[in-house]
Design a protein that fits this description.
By secondary structure, the protein is an alpha+beta fold. Among the domains are: 110 residues, no CATH class; 76 residues, no CATH class. Helices cover 55% and strands 16% of the residues. The protein is built from eight helices and seven strands. α1 packs antiparallel against α2, α2 packs antiparallel against α3 and α5 packs across α7. The termini are far apart.
Length: 299
């Protein structure tokens, strides 16, 4: 009961602040800019401060809980403050944008504690954004082998990105003639698609397949992964052109061209894919960028 008291006090104070702000914005028309600034301040800063001093300092919640509270207050302010007087709110969005990313990461990590499809999906989104935005470095070493260079995947991704940029601009100008919000939604989806392409490419580049301590760490970027003991590899066959390797239970690790090698396993193995997807395979069809590195890795 005592632990619930700070939360109830916060709810009462926050509800009072929101009610007063709504009444003020609906009844007072003079000095609209000053009023909008004050209402924005109370909704986005005063309420989180009350949360901190009453709930966090009361030992009911952690300091990191300020992030979702602030984001919710920003969304609430966008509904309460009149549309033509949201300058201060727009300035605060420069602060809320990185906090939203942090909140997404924290949510994904907490969800990952449970083995659910939702948790796996959240972690996939976080990993793609992490590789798209923060993993641009050159690999520290050249161990193992990758599968993206032989087909020129980097050039193909660059072309797709250029096409998406021009398509996004054209669609934005077209859609905004009917609805500005819809135009920005379309643009945001295009930007997210670009980030997905970048994240997938950097993962292919930075996550090679390698062997260590008798285990083959199979990595197809973020798309598929598995850890297979080298003793579980029954045979490695070189595939002739046009060979019939396409069958159930064969994982393809080749971007555009036909695979060069077929790696047969002694017993079925589970591979992990995006968003918690799993497949049971008995062979892997691979086209490595470096044939010598492939042979060294799979010995």
């Amino acid at each position: 009961m005592l632990r619930a008291l700070p939360t109830r006090i916060f709810a009462l104070v926050a509800l009072t602040i929101v009610t007063v702000c709504v009444v003020l914005t609906r009844t007072i028309t003079s000095n609209a800019d000053v009023l909008a600034w004050g209402v924005t301040f109370d909704l986005t800063l005063t309420i989180p401060l009350v949360w901190y001093f009453v709930v966090v300092r009361g030992g009911v919640a952690k300091r990191v809980s300020l992030i979702p509270v602030f984001i919710v207050c920003m969304m609430l302010a966008a509904l309460v403050v009149p549309k033509g007087h949201q300058e201060f709110l727009h300035d605060l969005r420069y602060l809320s944008a990185p906090l939203e990313v942090v909140a997404l990461v924290l949510l994904a990590k907490r969800a990952a504690a449970g083995d659910s499809r939702l948790a796996a999906f959240a972690m996939t989104e976080v990993n793609v954004l992490r590789y798209a935005l923060f993993r641009w470095r050159t690999p520290d070493d050249e161990r193992g082998f990758t599968i993206h260079r032989r087909c020129g995947w980097g050039t193909i991704v660059a072309c797709f990105l250029m096409l998406l940029v021009f398509e996004s601009l054209g669609m934005h100008l077209l859609v905004q003639q009917w609805n500005v919000k819809a135009a920005w939604i379309v643009t945001c989806l295009d930007v997210y698609g670009m980030l997905w392409l970048l994240g997938d490419y950097h993962a292919l580049r930075l996550l090679p397949t390698y062997s260590e301590n008798g285990v083959l760490h199979l990595r197809y970027g973020l798309r598929w992964s598995a850890d297979i003991p080298l003793d579980e590899i029954e045979s490695i066959e070189e595939l002739p052109p046009g060979s019939a390797w396409k069958q159930k239970g064969v994982l393809k690790m080749a971007m555009l061209d036909e695979p060069r090698y077929l790696l047969r396993l002694r017993r079925p193995t589970t591979v992990n894919g995006l968003a918690g997807i799993r497949r049971t395979i008995h062979a892997v069809a691979i086209l490595p960028d470096d044939f010598e590195a492939f042979e060294r890795t799979t010995r």
